Amino acid sequence: MPSFDLSEAGLLAGMAAGEPDAAVLARLHSRLAADAGSAGVLDLAYTVMDSPVGRLILAATDAGLVRVAFECEGVDEVLQVLSDRISPRILEAPERLAVPVAQLQEYFDGARHSFDLDLDLRLTSGYRRTVVQVLQGIGYGHTVTYAGIAALTGNPGAVRAVGTACGRNPLPLVIPCHRVLRSDGTTGGYRGGPAAKKILLDLEAAA
Amino acid sequence: MKPFEQIVQEHGPAVLRVCRAVLGPQDAEDAWSETFLAALRAYPALPEGANIQAWLVTIAKRKAIDQHRSAARNPLPVEQLPEPPPAGGAAELDGLWHALKTLPVRQREALAYHHLAGLPYAEVALLLGGSEAACRRSAADGMKKLRTLYREDRNAIL
């Protein structure tokens, strides 16, 4: 019955005229994030912020900040790993990350030299976790070599393992793996790319 | 398993359309919120490969029943027509809802689940009960009636 189909198409077009607009969906999304938070069913909240080293993805659990990632790692990829390793109950919920976002902004403005945040280190374990904990002791504007970190962990032969641990640091910037350099003075690799590492070192050297 | 955020992005608009068609623009947002909150709670236990849209619509239907029930407990003057909204899209929607709410709930649901949520009639039958053919008939009857009513309504607006 072609005439009926035509009317049906017209009707469906009428329904599409009432297509939920972006503003309504955005409002519903914030409400969902807030309701999920109070109901205790939001296992991971995340947000994306601008920074001098590109956009950053920040994710937190109830225990604290669990992941800082660079845009070059891919937002979808980062969220998928969090879903697989922690929980798929993930929503974008910027309010839940207001404090780390503010502290990172102060850091990029040169106004903050250390972070005061609850950290959730569950994405790192074993020797990598030991390295990450040692990294937390490197002060603003200071640098250490990979060999130096290996020595500090009591395992001076583990230079390569230190490099891997820095590369897999789940909380770059906040846990300052960018302050670890090669023994020949070159900057070495970085999860956010070598250019980002240089920007951070220059920022801290200028202070 | 996909992060739930992706589920909201992919299915949020369709679920809102369904809630609007079944409950009207006023109650749709509450139903949407309750649907996605319940879905988030249950999500980790959802079997791999499940039809997510059908699952969400099932939850939305349950929420719609709750709302119908609470509306019956607290009757509101629904016969009063809302003020004409300013935006064109919203006017279309209100005109459509004006026509939709004269349909029996079953026809409205069959229509929304098949045409707006894109569920095959076999899935619609699981949701509404009865046979696939009966659901197809409900949707067709609803569509036929809606076509007449909506056309009158549009003519009245234009």
From TrEMBL, chain A:
UniProt GO MF annotations: methylated-DNA-[protein]-cysteine S-methyltransferase activity
Family statement drawn from the similarity comment of this UniProt entry: Belongs to the MGMT family.
Natural source organism: Arthrobacter zhangbolii
E.C. numbers: 2.1.1.63
One Pfam family linked to the record: Methyltransf_1N
Signal sequence, renumbered to the chain: none
Annotated Methylguanine DNA methyltransferase ribonuclease-like domain residues: 45-121
Protein name, per record: Methylated-DNA--protein-cysteine methyltransferase
From TrEMBL, chain B:
Keywords assigned by UniProt, alphabetized: DNA-binding, Sigma factor, Transcription, Transcription regulation
Pfam families, per database record: Sigma70_r2 (PF04542), Sigma70_r4_2 (PF08281)
InterPro entries: RNA_pol_sigma-70-like (IPR039425), RNA_pol_sigma-70_dom (IPR014284), RNA_pol_sigma70_r2 (IPR007627), RNA_pol_sigma70_r4_t2 (IPR013249), RNA_pol_sigma_r2 (IPR013325), RNA_pol_sigma_r3/r4-like (IPR013324), WH-like_DNA-bd_sf (IPR036388)
Residue ranges of every copy of the RNA polymerase sigma factor 70 region 4 type domain listed in the record: 96-146
Residue ranges constituting the RNA polymerase sigma-70 region domain according to the UniProt record: 7-73
GO molecular function, one term: sigma factor activity
Top-level taxon of origin: Bacteria
One GO term of the biological process aspect: DNA-templated transcription initiation
Family assignment from sequence similarity: Belongs to the sigma-70 factor family. ECF subfamily.
Full protein name: RNA polymerase sigma factor
